[in-house]
Design brief:
single chain, 206 residues, mainly alpha, globular, disordered C terminus
Length: 206
């Protein structure tokens, strides 16, 4: 049973690692944009428009794209002093408590996904990618032109005339992230968290 769970866990771990890499790429892109803005602002007195909006939008993507890998590697901020202390005297209790925390975390993440999904669907439906809208220009038959028109119809974030971006990619990133986190937490509950090895310093070589 343990081998089956580890095999099931493997693809989700890989997806979490790839998602983290994408989030890191967004960080590098954001750093590049901010550096260009600093140079344009200081040298040419012509700052880039919409940098604030881009930063806010990018932070949403960065946080939620990297969250699953944070959960995978047990680097999510938490207070586990009690579990460490209990694990030294009662490892069985500590393991059970850790699994219960992971189960509650899985349920919490699943509730967030259940809440965000309708918002994502409503956001993407405002674009009318597939069905023609009841308003605006009818489809022209040109795929790229119609696609650009659909993106212009989307529920957007930002300031019109400065920077706008469709909201649905951010909501999709949130839904994807919390769903994957819920699955990883659930698998942690079933597999169990590897207990740290305690080293006796008195036996360490001089």
């Amino acid at each position: 049973m343990s081998d089956i769970l580890h095999r099931i866990n493997g693809p989700f771990i890989s997806v979490a690692i790839v998602s983290n890499a994408v989030g890191t790429a967004v960080i590098f892109l954001l750093v590049g944009i901010m550096n260009v803005d600093i140079i344009a602002r200081g040298v040419f007195h012509a700052p880039l428009r919409g940098v604030v909006e881009i930063v806010i939008f990018s932070l949403v993507l960065i946080v939620f794209l990297q969250l699953p890998d944070v959960v995978r590697s047990n680097r999510l901020t938490r207070s586990d002093g009690f579990l460490v202390f209990a694990g030294q005297r009662h490892p069985g209790f500590a393991n059970g408590a850790a699994r219960m925390i992971d189960l509650l975390s899985a349920i919490f993440m699943a509730l967030i996904a259940w809440t965000v999904y309708p918002e994502f669907v409503d956001s993407i439906e405002t674009c009318h990618f597939i069905t023609p809208p009841e308003f605006g220009a009818p489809p022209t038959g040109d795929f790229f032109a119609d696609l650009a028109t659909a993106f212009a119809r989307c529920e957007y974030f930002g300031t019109p005339g400065i920077f706008t971006a469709p909201w649905w990619p951010a909501k999709l990133a949130i839904f994807f992230s919390v769903t994957l986190c819920s699955i990883i937490f659930l698998l942690k509950t079933l597999i169990g968290t590897r207990k740290p090895v305690l080293v006796d310093e008195s036996e360490s070589p001089v």
